[in-house]
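Hi C.,

You asked whether I'd gotten around to modeling the 154-residue construct. I have! Everything is below, sequence then structure, no commentary in between.
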Amino acid sequence: MNITDLITPDGILPNLRAGSKKQALQELARKASDLVDLDAREIFDVLLERERLGTTGVGHGIAIPHGKLAKLDRLHGVFARLEKPIDFDAIDDEPVDLVFLLLAPETAGADHLKALARVSRLLRDRGVCTQLRGCDTIDAIYALFNQVATSDAA
């Protein structure tokens, strides 16, 4: 599974303004709502429910909020590069500036886990994160995701 199987250019927010974790999740839910044709509030509620189980701020400025929705037919991703880092209750207490939202169908058991692992692997790569932090356009971010997908396939 490649990152580009999860995300399209329409799912990229290159300079998201958010002052808090809640606001960032609301904006991500709004963007995801446009992509998957579901109510933004429904998506937001699923994300909040997941955050109550434990933070999805995985450290090093990265968060991977995720959730499952019955009405989805496949996995969907939304990526945001935040204009300014925010407190996300991350496990290392560092502010977050790169967020990859992953939404999956309720029936996506193993595929959901594979996608989470793929996103996590991508964002554990410090070089990729440095490049993402330097990208300020949708095209540049998507090109980087494509480049990573191509090099992983080789």
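If it helps when you're writing up: The chain has five helices and six strands.

Thanks,
B.
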